[in-house]
Amino acid sequence: MHATKDRTPRVTPLDETTTRWSDWRWQLRHRCRNLRQLERFLELSPPERQALEQTREILPVAITPYYLSLMHPGDPQDPLRRTLVPVMGEFATLPGDSPDPLDEARDTVVPGVIRRHPDRVVLLATGVCATYCRYCTRSRLVGGGEKLTGHWDQAIAYIADHPEIRDVLISGGDPLLLSTSRLDGLLTRLRAIPHVELLRIGSRIPLVLPMRITRKLVDMLRKHHPLAVSLHAIHPRELTPLAQTALARLADAGIMLAGQTVLLAGINDSLPVLADLMRGLLRNRVRPYYLYQCDPIPGSGHFRVPVEQGLRLMAGLQGHMSGYAVPRFVIDAPGGGGKIPLASETVVGRDARGWLLKNHLGEIFCYPEAFVE
Ligand code: SF4
């Protein structure tokens, strides 16, 4: 039996002078994935240490040296750190939590294709991410070594057989982690389907691994217009010079950029932080699009912000910045009701179970209010 390969970085991840720092594959190979590796760079708090010691049966830990360098090594409350380093709250399940809160399994029409609307589908192209967000809605699917690439033929055949599908969101996992040639192959096959008009890629890569946005990648992407990238951004400190270069490359290539932010307790649930993030995105040609209420997956309770606070934050944003910088505040309705914008006319009421919300069809869904103080 072979010993597990030691992936501990040979140079400190915080040493940005290494020539390999800008090599995205080096960054991936040297991700910190366990307590032993993380404690070399962070002063771990007891809850972090305890959580890292427990077997991670659902969502692994992975942090690129680049993103680790943005974290405060001595502060467990550092917002960037809290998104990627687990704490014991991750092991708590609250009433209404579900591993598949959006009922994506029910809406899976063939393996890897989720269809909730007539004209668009989500194609889960990979199960791998550069970093694993502790509040991930798809934590049941990602990071388990499952590459989710074996079903592409069936998925593409399904989309080709349904002429009403105009828009394909390629998601996962993070599709920008696929090799350039493999992603090119997938986009080429989808682009060859005459009724597919818009291709979108959901990604966090420009902010957690910006060196992946190489000229070669961008030159490939620009062949597949109209193409959009939905950028998962959670904090203004993610908009570093490197990340700004990555976003500029994508924007210069004519790729539409839309921001998606999850509202997270202690991370971005204040008006100054949210406003900075939205303004920063807009400055980098990313249109803030959605602000999501955190989905009720088990272990996300400590991240959830009361809906009422979210509504107050939105009122603050609306009053104080360009409409272009103001996202829509939405709940992806538990039970598969789709994204429901939170505004007075969609909030029908509240009962002992949580908030009652009306979607565009007039259907009522319940969002459980449980969260950790
Ligand atoms: S990058 Fe997206 S899919 Fe990957 S862990 Fe984060 S939220 Fe989940």
Feature tags:
27% helix, 373 residues, binds iron/sulfur cluster, alpha/beta, globular, 2 domains, TIM Barrel
Describe the fold and architecture:
By secondary structure, the chain is of the alpha/beta class. It has 2 domains: 73 residues, no CATH class; 231 residues, TIM Barrel (Alpha-Beta Barrel). 27% of the residues lie in helices and 18% in strands. The chain is built from 12 helices and 13 strands. Strands 1-2-3-4-5-6-7-8-9-10 form a 10-stranded mixed beta sheet. Strands 11-12-13 form a 3-stranded antiparallel beta sheet, with no helix packed on it. Strand 7, helix 11 and strand 8 form a beta-alpha-beta unit. Helix 7 packs parallel to helix 9. The protein is globular, with a radius of gyration of 20 Å. The termini are far apart. The N terminus is likely disordered. The structure holds iron/sulfur cluster. Iron/sulfur cluster binds next to loops.
